[in-house]
Design a protein that fits this description.
The complex is a heterodimer of chains A (258) and B (292). Chain A is α/β, with parallel strands linked by helices and 258 residues long. Chain A has helices at residues 45-52, 80-89, 98-101, 108-118, 124-137, 154-166, 184-201, 212-218, 236-241, 246-253; strands at 7-16, 19-29, 34-38, 60-66, 72-74, 91-94, 172-176, 204-209, 221-226, 229-235. Chain A is built from 10 helices and 10 strands. Chain B is an alpha/beta fold. Chain B has helices at residues 14-29, 50-59, 77-90, 138-146, 151-164, 193-196, 269-277, 283-291; strands at residues 35-36, 65-70, 93-94, 103-107, 120-124, 175-177, 181-183, 202-207, 212-216, 222-224, 251-255, 262-266. Chain B starts with 13 loop residues before the first helix and ends with a helix. The chains are: A alpha/beta (258), B alpha/beta (292). At the A-B interface, helix 2, helix 4 and helix 5 of A face helix 5 of B.
């Protein structure tokens, strides 16, 4: 791990008119670190994620990103062209619903290759070889490379979405409920895969989830949100084993035991 | 009321022509950029060339000589009726000879004869946005043009190769203009794409329903998109034209009977007639003469 944080978030708030989206959130994300944001629906997790990934502009506060050239840049002050370039090269965004993150009408190979073509790769053979390699890495059979995602199961679509995001070797990946809507065994396989990839590639990730088990498996650190505020944060094991806030205690104790 | 008060040269009123000319000037200044304009209702249905007719009406002068072609032919419905329309509303000279025309309105072909400086080619465009079938949102495609995000165009070509083993797009083949804007050359066969490159003639594109005008000024770089290992290629024909024997031209297939008989003839009728007048004969014409 290098000595400087990848992402510095300082006092970020987002208001929808008089309603609060999230309020006064500050944290730092370090290279290679996986941070989970948990809380019930309506607690501001997704708003916060959108503010961090520049999909929404925060009402106040600053988000700074450590660029590859070693400089910190305020994301809100970047030009749109630069921001969009960053989003499709150095970042990834995995949506809860794979249809939002994939092009459903083009083949799996083209889905993975799109980012490569966007950054100027113009060699069909190389693009296809890279796409095939990434499909293998996310455990999709290579002979499915010319199938459209419509022909894929939910779990495969989600894995394809992950491959599509990772193909440009991003340093930071945002995930919004990556396992939502998948059945338990498929969830387990996906989590295992993500954990392996994050470890192998040295990715940093911010994962929004309401599922504490996902947070436990994937994340090093977690933040608990309620009513737009971060009420507790710390190492995942500490927060889950020894929750301090009454709300966190309630959350942890409401996990179903089988 | 005098006759003059009820009549305006070339159908459109002067304010409309002024508005269209401004759009054309802007389009010429930014090669390949789609300029929105307030497209008018024309006395013909959308899809019949309302965009091209408006552009032609706006640039037409009493001294111009007009040629109208439809898929290369001067004698098909669309070409005949538009030519008649401008004869009636502007009383301009018309011709079928490519060389003599100052303005050529075309539906989906570029004449075989190389166009020269001073000529203007007006294209009728159904869908001006090359990214439309991949990205349905207009707001998003405009942003992609503005930020030069053209990766998606190659996704389409990738799909072509993945499905067919080669780039199967044969018409409306996307081009990059002057190293900046990706443009739809209207549904011309890709055979004609190389003719757009560094052309001496001015090329104007009008899309009436979609309300866009764009342009390729003379001597502008027009490059067809491709992959390094799947380079751009034009169509090739095995046989020459059956009537005039021309090679290296775009041919149409014509069914002759119900026993599988067919011939391939020049899609550019003027070019074909011109060659025949100069004594060239394809194999079918030669057979016919021998029989007589």
């Amino acid at each position: 791990m290098s000595a400087v944080p990848l992402l510095k978030v300082n006092d970020v708030s987002k208001f929808y008119g008089s309603r609060i989206g999230c309020r006064n959130v500050s944290f730092e994300l370090w290279p290679g670190e996986v941070l989970a944001i948990v809380g019930e629906s309506g607690s501001g997790k997704t708003t916060l994620l959108s503010c961090l990934s520049t999909r929404l502009m925060p009402t106040s506060g600053v988000v700074e990103y450590h660029m590859r050239d070693g400089q910190y840049r305020d994301l809100a002050r970047m030009g749109e062209a630069e921001r969009r370039f960053l989003m499709r090269t150095d970042w990834g965004f995995v949506h809860q619903n794979p249809a939002d993150g994939l092009r459903m009408t083009v083949s799996a190979g083209a889905n993975v290759g799109e980012r490569l073509m966007a950054v100027g790769d113009r060699h069909y053979g190389n693009i296809r070889a890279t796409a095939a390699d990434w499909l293998r890495r996310v455990e999709i059979e290579e002979d499915r490379i010319d199938d459209q995602p419509r022909a894929f199961s939910g779990g495969m679509r989600q894995r394809l979405q992950i491959a599509r995001n990772l193909v440009t070797s991003p340093r930071l990946v945002f995930m919004d409920e990556p396992t939502g809507g998948l059945d338990v065994s498929v969830q387990a396989r996906l989590l295992d895969l993500v954990r392996g990839l994050v470890h192998d590639l040295g990715l940093s990730a911010i994962i929004v989830t309401h599922d504490l088990a996902v947070a436990r498996l994937l994340s090093h650190r977690m933040m608990v949100m309620k009513d737009g505020l971060v009420i507790e944060q710390g190492l995942t094991d500490r927060v889950l084993d020894d929750p301090r806030e009454p709300y966190t205690q309630l959350l942890v104790s409401s996990i179903l035991q089988v | 009321m005098t006759d003059l008060a009820t009549y305006n040269f070339a159908y459109l009123d002067e304010q409309t022509k002024r508005m269209i000319r401004r759009a054309i000037l802007k389009a010429i200044s930014i090669p390949g950029y789609q300029v929105p304009f307030a497209s008018r209702e024309m006395p013909m249905p959308y899809g019949w060339g309302t965009g091209g007719v408006q552009v032609t009406a706006a640039i037409l002068g009493p001294d111009d000589v007009l040629k109208v072609i439809d898929q290369g032919a001067d004698d098909t419905t669309n070409a005949v009726s538009i030519r008649a329309f401008f004869q009636k509303v502007a009383n301009v000279a018309v011709t079928t000879k490519t060389r003599e025309a100052t303005i050529i309105q075309t539906r989906h072909r570029i004449p075989e004869e190389t166009l020269t400086a001073g000529q203007t080619l007006v294209y009728q465009v159904p869908i001006p946005e090359p990214l439309r079938f991949l990205e349905p949102r207009e707001t998003e495609t405009r942003k992609m043009h503005a930020l030069e995000e053209y990766g998606l165009m190659h996704v389409k070509l990738y799909e072509d190769i993945a499905r067919n083993g080669h780039i199967a797009t044969t018409y409306a083949y996307p081009v990059k203009v002057e190293g900046r804007y990706v443009m739809d050359p209207s549904p011309t066969p890709k055979f004609d794409n190389p003719k757009m490159h560094m052309s001496e003639a001015l090329q104007l594109f009008g899309a009436g329903r979609e309300k866009r005008i764009y342009a390729v000024p003379p001597y502008t770089e027009v490059v067809s998109l491709d992959f390094e290992d799947h380079p751009f290629e034009i169509q090739h024909f095995d046989k020459p034209c059956a009537l005039c024997g021309a090679e290296q031209v775009y041919l149409d297939e014509v069914i002759l009977d119900d026993k599988g008989g067919r011939m391939f003839v020049c899609s550019d009728t003027d070019h074909c007639e011109d060659r025949r007048a100069h004594g060239h004969a394809g194999h079918l014409l030669a057979q016919q003469e021998a029989a007589e």
